Each structure stands twice: as structure tokens, then as C-alpha cells.
## 1
Amino acid sequence: MKEITSTQNSYVKDLLKLQEKSRERKKTGLFIIEGKREISLAVAANYKFDTILYLEGLISEQEVLHLFNDNVNRIQISKEVYQKLAYRDSTEGIIAVTKSKNFALENIKFEKENPLILVAEGVEKPGNIGALLRTADAANIDAVFIANPKSDVYNANIIRSSVGCVFTNQIAVGTSEEIITFLQDNNIKIYATTLQNSNEYHKENYTEASAIVVGTEANGLTEAFREKATQNINIPMQGKIDSMNVSVAAAIVLFEAKRQRKFKL
């Protein structure tokens, strides 16, 4: 076991780059997780860990060892170093340097014949992506596809806002065209949420293999999804505004699909 007490330590500086820069995460194949719950979910999802940093007093070495299946490299850090590295306001005293997974479409595996998938196209704000992943976990769907991503999945804001659901969902990342091809090749119906040429969402049948596609409030979905959809769908608005937050829209349609599947399939 090692100990780091200085915020000027070169490893600490490297970790700050890892936390802040997508390019650094891609180059090293590493990212940072903060917090007991999030780390526990990553352990359950069979993520591999490079190093664990912890602040004695907030969490003991025994608690650290209890979180992991094997004895990973661990470093005790000072309060100053922890405060420098900690991204969140809450203090649980543990930070994990974790190995990235490959989010290629070809790695997706379905355990049933009628999977339910959420596709998020061009969603820019990390908080919205995190909320979508949290919604997907709540509905216990089969996969989340992120089309034309604006942020990498291991962005600290995505991990935080998803409350660790980055690790509980099966995720794939690709272009809209790649995802459409995958869905068509696997005979998965595409339901695109858009106002153009659309039916009300609750009038469709989602009991077969289905993908619910959502886009941003500002730009909506690209022509690729609008034109290739099995059916465009809309949520009938009852008030003065004509749109809602993307994660709310996704939740409404996903839970209608789950209702139709009697919350079992």
C-alpha cells in the first residue's frame, strides 16, 4: 500500500486530467468513479479496477477491501489530496481508477426475443444522458444505445447524474446509421418520438422487439430516424408548452411499453 499527501504529486495531476478530459480517458482506457454505491455497482457489473484511493477516517482500509472481489492496488491519500480529486460535494472518501469497457454495438447481447431498447440521439447535456440511464434502469430495459454522442459515457457528470446506472445498463455507442442498421438487422421495430407524421404513443404495440428513440428538445431527431422508423410517435401535450425534458419523454413511453408487457417481459 502507498500513500500520497501532496496535491502536487504527478499521479494526482494525471488523475485530474483523467477526470476532466475525454481525450485522456480515451488515450489511457481509464476513468474515475467516486462513491461507494457507484463503485459497488461497477463491481457487480464486472468492471476491472486499476487503483483505489481512499481517505482514512471517512472510510477504512477494511471497508475498501470489502468492496472488491480481489486485492486491487490501493493508495491512502490525505484530506487535501481527496478534496482536490473529489468531484462531488458529498464525501465518502473513496475514488476508483477504473478500466473502460468497449461500447461497440457488436458486443450487445439480448437474453430474450423481444428486447426493449432506448435510443438517445444527439443528446448533448451529460445530466440528461445520466437521467436517461437512470430511467432505463428503473424500467429494467434491455439496452441503451447512444447515437451521435456529444459526451463520452464516462464523463463524471454522466456517472453522477445516473447515480451509477452507467454500470447497470447494457450500453452501446454508434452513429445513427450504424444503430438503425443494427436494429433493422435484428428485426427490432423503431418508434421515433417526433411530431412529424406521428401517432399518439399509447396507440402503438410495444410487446414485440422495440426501440424507443428520443432526441433533444432543441433539434429533435434527425431525418435518418424519422424516415427509417417503423412508426413515428408523439406524446399529446395537454398544457401550454409543446415539449418536455428528454428523460421525462423517454420514461413515459418506456413505462407504457412495460405496462403492455405486464411489467414482466
## 2
Amino acid sequence: MSAAAPVIRRVAVVGTGVIGASWAAFFLARGLDVTATDPAPGAEQRLREAVQRHWPTMQRMGLVDGASLERLRFDAELERALDGCDFVQESGPERADFKADLYARMDAATPPRVLLASSSSGLPVSGMQARCKTPQRVVLGHPFNPPHLIPLVEVGGGDATSPDSIQRAMDFYAALGKRPIHVRREIAGHIANRLQAALWREAFHLVDQGVASVSDIDTAIAHGPGLRWALMGPFMNLHLSGGQGGMQHLLEHLGGPIESWWRDLGNPAMTEALKAHVVQGVAEARGMRREEELERTRDELLADLIRAKAQGSLF
């Protein structure tokens, strides 16, 4: 983090649903003070239960000195929760009108040095900052679920965001152990969600066409390319598939077939019948396992994978 950047010791987490609670656990594990806010009835209890549930995994990943659940405070009133914060991580409802109103309030309640970062999974920052008096400090800080474990954070800005604010956000997340990437221009869904959406589209298409079951598709990814993608991204995996000739050789020999597969990819409609088919397929694959069990197992395996990658990461 640059010498001129304000020191961040207290983070305000605005919105304490699945993403906000996960962020809160992460910030606490990195030794920060966290003040959370959410107007929904019962929000504080749900937040504390979620953070408590995530804490064993955070301990397994390694806590920094001073990390403590006692550093979590909750205030249902937005302006009081923002008082004294050094950074804001917003994870409210994914509605453009709601975001615009919320950012106008947060802008008015915090000094201009405080970055206002959104966890939005697809909305443009320009709309969020439109009613702010200091829009240059509004940034995208989109995590990948669950934020308390997955390192990726997509950082970007809107029409009025300053390059300094983007760099400060990148530096802040990186200093906490995240892997921030820069979304260089606004686009619906940012980067990672667009890549996911391309895979989801074909997955739904294959189910719709009766090519494979929901369970078989999950198996195909989780026990096939997903294993490689967890280590290296699509381009580097393609490069290695080219042998000694690398990407150049791969594209010379498979560029044409890959292009033909692109042309044959499906464009399914989210019909009621398809939705019902997928819901039933997931229920069958899940069996008697509860969501809490699946989440716990996922987090344990993710923690092991992330630690292994940190010890021998290729990139």
C-alpha cells in the first residue's frame, strides 16, 4: 500500500447476508475491526451465527495476531455504523435504484478519504456513484463466493472513479492476502461471472437436450477440467495442452475444431420445465445431505486447496 494511503483499521460491512457475513469473517480474521449494519429484522443474530460458523475454517487457514470475534460490532443504523470507519464493503441487494440511494447516503456519512467498495456481482459502478458528491472514491470490490476463502476480488470503477482509488483498493485487498484483478472497463457481470455464465449456459443446454444429467455435468467439471482450472486458468492450460509447441501448436491444430464447437454451443431458454428439471436433478444429486454439511465440506476442501496452492503456486 502506498505511503500516502490512509491506514485501514476499521471496515464497515454494509449488508450482512451470505456475502456480507463472509466478508465480515474474513476481515476479522485479518485482524481488523468490523462494524456491520443491516436493517433487516434478526440481521445481527444471523450475522454472528454465520461468522461463528466460518471461524473454525478461518482458524484453520491461519489468523493474524489480534484477530478476534470480539472485534465485531453491529449497528442497524447505517450512519452510526459508518462513523469512524476507514473502508466500506457494501454487499446490499443487487438493485440499481437501491445502490444509488445507498451510496448517496454512505457518501454523505463518510469523509472523502474512505473508499466505498461494492460487492455487486454485475451492476456498473457508474450508476452507484451517480448521486455522490465525491464519486471518485466509489469502486467495485466484487469477491467470489465465499469471500472468507476465495482469494479473487474484481476491482474496477465507474465513469467518475479515480485511478488512485482503484489502486488503493487493489493494494488494500492484496495486503490482506486477496488476489485482486482490474476490471478495465464496465461490463455486465464483470469478468469471472461472465466466464461462469458461459459454462452455465452450456450446462443448462446439455440438460435441456437430454445429453447429460445434472449430476453427470457436475461430475464432468468437478472431476475433469475443474481440477486443472483450480491450478491454472484456461489459457495456460491450453498452452500446456500444446506440448512443446505450446499455445501456437495448440491453436494450429485445434483452433478450427474449437471454433466449430463454439458455433454448436446452445442458447437455452430458462423455461419452467427446464428450471424444474434442474431443481429435481440437484435434489437427487444432493440426496440426504443438508446444505450445512455441503458448505462445511466445501470450505474444508477449499481451505486445504488454497493452502496447498500458497505453498507451491504456479502463478
